[in-house]
Amino acid sequence: MKVLRASRMERCIGCYSCALACARLVHRCLSWRHSGIRIRSSGGLSTGFDAQVCLACDPAPCVAACPTEAFSQRAGGGVKVQRGLCIRCGACAKACPVQAVWVDPESLEPIVCIHCGRCTTFCPHACLEMADVPGSAEKRSLIGNALQKR
């Protein structure tokens, strides 16, 4: 299982190519307001940029908060969204601990990174990557080892 990581943001020039690619290829709209990845200035042009993206929580709080099961847990972390089940209540966005779920102000539809990786090829400086996530057994082993060291 792979998830999107913004691992080399020191290279980012703030061109928004990744956000526009996501909006166009995933959400069928040409506006970075409809993108699962948000690029922001870290405080000014000289300080660089940050990427706000879903952290692929497992279990995901947005899934637990969704009253209609429009959000479902993806194996390995992250979520799948079934827009037809969404009642546009915004509970998913409120539950996200890193504010990676956005609600479009016009349609009230939730927008979140689905870890498809389509944006990575559009970044001219290779700031983004699809990274492997340890399997469930490996995660449990890592957690168990951490608890034993306490």
What percentage of residues falls in helices of 4 or more residues?
Answer: 10-25%
Q: Which consecutive residue ranges, at least 5 long each, have pLDDT under 50?
A: 139-147
The CATH class of the largest domain: Alpha Beta
CATH architecture of the largest domain: 2-Layer Sandwich
Distance between the termini: 29 Å
Number of helical elements: 4
Strand order of the largest sheet: 1-8
**Overall pLDDT metric:** 86
Q: Major beta sheet, specifics? A: 2 strands, antiparallel
Gross morphology: globular
The helix/strand class is alpha+beta
Number-wise, the strands total 8
Structural commentary:
The protein has 2 domains: 1-53 and 113-150, Alpha-Beta Plaits (2-Layer Sandwich), CATH 3.30.70; 56-111, Alpha-Beta Plaits. The strands form 4 sheets. Strands 1-8 form a two-stranded antiparallel sheet. A two-stranded antiparallel sheet has the order 2-3. Strands 4-5 form a two-stranded antiparallel sheet. It is built from 4 helices and 8 strands. The protein starts with a strand and ends with a helix. It is globular and about 40 Å long. With 150 residues, the chain is an alpha+beta fold.
